[in-house]
Each structure stands twice: as structure tokens, then as C-alpha cells.
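Hello Y.,

Per our agreement to keep a running log of every chain we model this quarter, I'm adding this entry. I've kept the format consistent with earlier entries: sequence first, then predicted structure.
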Amino acid sequence: MQQMEPTNATMAVRLMQESDLEAVAQLHISAFPEQLMSRLGVDVVRAYYAWQLRCGATARAFRAAVVGNGNGLAGFVIGGRYHGATSGFVKAYAGTLLLALARNPQLLGDRRVLAKLRAVTRAVFSVWFRRAAPSQTGPVAEPSFGVLALAVAPQSQGSGVAALLMHDLEGAAMAAGFRAMNLHVNTDNPRAIAFYEKRGWQRDGARPWTGNMRLLLEQRP
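Predicted structure for the entry above:
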């Protein structure tokens, strides 16, 4: 069954441009004020999304889109399949990140921040060690189109922006020949989880569930 998407003449999806990065960074901070990156400041957030656009320029599959309305950006989404989305950014901007932490030393007293820093460090070293390790034989998992970020301005939530953006990203994944998509959602965000499950996403991974979700595109509602 084909999924019907909300339509709104005042909203339109278009490709993200470098000129959008300031507004994207501000929107990210307003949508996710408690995230570590948001708390490190707008310069770090802007640099992160600029890095994603540079990675995407040479990626096998990439899509970065925004929804605008009369008040500016109402939301944005980034997804694809490419290396270095996190590890490459941390390596390239290590000095910027350390300086931002030095300017916000109170963050190091937050257990959630320390847990996030440990997780990022593990992810970076995992990528480096995996590349250094010899190739192994055996079945290879089918490539999946990843959702890196989806954000909607607080004042635009519930207006159909998220559905428009996800519909656009799913279309990009199918056009690139992918049969599955993956993402990670905060397990403390029931609204986001319900949104994805309504679109046919399923919880994936070990128990207890850590927020990984997967969508088989041919099984969309």
C-alpha cells in the first residue's frame, strides 16, 4: 500500500546548500538543546553539518534536504551511505572540539556527556581498527541507507514537516538502489519512536533495545 504524505502549499522540500548551514545549526540547537554537540556551541554544530555536506559530495549515496516556510527553515534531514560521518569529523575537528570543551568545563561533570564522549571515542577507534584489520571471509551484510539527522523546529512540530522529509529521504534511498534503511533514535523520545514505527520502522538489535531501527523499503506501509 502506498503511503500518503501530507501536502502543504506553504512547505517545500529542497536540497540543503552551504548558505543554509547557519540556519541548520540554529535549528539543530533548538530541536536538540540537551545534545552534547548543541551544548558545545553553534560553531561546532555548523562545522559538523558543513563536514557532512563535504562527505556527501563524494559519497555513493547522499541526500541533504530542508523544508522551508515563510519563517525560514522548518526542518532538515541528512542521510546516505558514506564513511567518516562521525569518525572523520572528530579527527578533522579534534582541536575545535577540545577548545569547545575547554570553554565549557562544566560539561565534563555531566555523566551523560562523559558517556557520550566514551561512545564517540569507541566508535572512532572501532573504525580505525577495523580498517587496519585484515579482511575476513564470510557473508557481508547488505548495504543500508542511513539516516544521520532529522530535525524539526519546535514551532513546526506536528505540521507534517518530518513526514515530508522522511518521504524525500526514503525516495532517495530507493532511487539509489537500496532496499533497507537504518537509524538510531533516543530511547527516551517516545514521540520520535512512534513516528518511525508508524512509517514501518522496526526496532533492531540486542535487548535491552538501544535505539537502533531498520526499515525494509519494500515493506513500507
